[in-house]
Amino acid sequence: MNLLMVFLQEVVQYNKHFVEGLAVIGAGICMGIAALGPAIGQGFVAGKAMEAIGRQPEAAGQIRSTMILGQAIAETTGIYALLVAILLIFAV
Questions:
Q1: pTM here?
Q2: Which of 33, 39, 30 is closest to 71 using CA atoms?
Q3: Which whole-number Å values give the CA distances from 1 to 4, 5, 6, 13, 69, in the listed order?
């Protein structure tokens, strides 16, 4: 009976470390995938803004402010992913 209890305690300890390891791997994957979205979105927005400024230089101020707002909104996705990754690392 004593041997069974020792075995069960080892299994529980192993499962705890296994879950913690999977949480860290999940956090890394979360940040890796979530970093691609804002990067692609911000690059696309900046490119289109430069095209628009090239076509209408007199509207550069309005285009630039709209571009910065769009990039800020795109960046929030990365920030939310960072929060999820931090929760995965420290809450599990």
A1: 0.66
A2: 39
A3: 5, 6, 9, 19, 66
Return d(Cα 82, Cα 31) in angstroms, integer.
6
- The CATH number assigned to the domain holding 63 equals 1.20.20.10
Number of domains in the chain: 1
Query: Given phi > 0 = left and psi -120 to 50 = alpha, else beta, which region is 56?
Result: beta
In a domain, 13, yes or no: no
Q: Residue 6 — very low, low, confident or very high, per pLDDT cuts 50/70/90?
A: confident
Contact (CB, 8 A) for 49 and 74: no
Q: Is residue 53 part of a domain?
A: yes
Average pLDDT over residues 37-63: 92
Residue 1: the pLDDT is 65
For tokens 């960072």, the residue is: 82
